[in-house]
Write a structure and sequence with these properties.
mainly beta
Length: about 160
């Protein structure tokens, strides 16, 4: 079955076309979903002002779909305004098999990534660094936290670092 694509078209924190809205849509759609980005082209920052919904279904957040992508994240998910203890991308059991690809996740007061599901993949992400891959903008907690079971892999489990 072909995954359903939900496209983020806005850098706003909430409303139509936002990352928050895309996660909500993907969670209620049964089966695999891809959250794609089409916010003009080039680097874009999504300033999150409240906690994003946890991922509870099979969802791939794919920053590589942003126009102009050439191997370096162009989408930055910035949690500076999200509030105390807020983590960035949270994947709960039931979300087995999701992926996070090609995004920068910075300045959350909690973890950038909190994974509680099996068979997750995190690739090509910058955790706690800007688009350059060299300027640190750490998350307050560990960068990423995982209690996932078998099959979970991450090349972004160390922040601030560039995930390969």
């Amino acid at each position: 079955m072909t995954p359903t694509t939900v496209t983020v078209t806005s850098t706003a924190s909430a409303g139509v076309g936002t990352l928050l809205s895309a996660i909500l849509q993907a969670n209620v759609n049964p089966g695999a979903d891809v959250i794609a980005f089409d916010i003009g082209s080039g680097t874009r920052e999504i300033r999150v002002s409240t906690a994003l919904p946890a991922i509870t279904d099979r969802v791939a957040i794919d920053g590589r779909t942003q126009g102009g992508f050439a191997g370096v994240p162009l989408i930055r998910i910035n949690g500076f305004e999200a509030g105390a203890g807020t983590s960035g991308i949270v994947i709960l059991p039931g979300g087995a098999g999701p992926a996070v690809r090609g995004v920068a996740i910075t300045q959350f007061n909690g973890d950038a990534l909190r994974i509680r599901a099996n068979n997750c993949r995190v690739t090509g992400c910058y955790v706690g660094v800007l688009f350059t891959g060299t300027e640190e903008l750490s998350n307050a907690a560990t960068g990423s936290a995982s209690t996932a079971g078998p099959g979970a892999t991450s090349s972004a489990a160390r922040g601030p670092r560039r995930a390969t």
